[in-house]
Design goal:
about 80 residues; mainly beta; OB fold (Dihydrolipoamide Acetyltransferase, E2P); 4-stranded antiparallel sheet; 8 strands; about 0% helix; elongated
Length: about 80
Amino acid sequence: MAVSSQTIDAHCASKNAYDLVVTDILVADGEHVTGEQLLMTIEYYKVVSEIIAPADGVVNHIRVALKDEVQVGDPLIDFTPA
């Protein structure tokens, strides 16, 4: 049975957050990662949100670049669980 890819979206602990900034990208396209591995950080007025891998798998495509502005719910990473 084939595992379907999924998208990891932007999120923030701060309510009503907007214009979050990508502050760190720690993986590359095609990289194999483990569950709970830190993939990226985004920031909204000093509130840092960690984007982590939901499971072991492969980062298929990173949709953003360092210092890009994103909104809550925007797709950040295309990911295929193992």
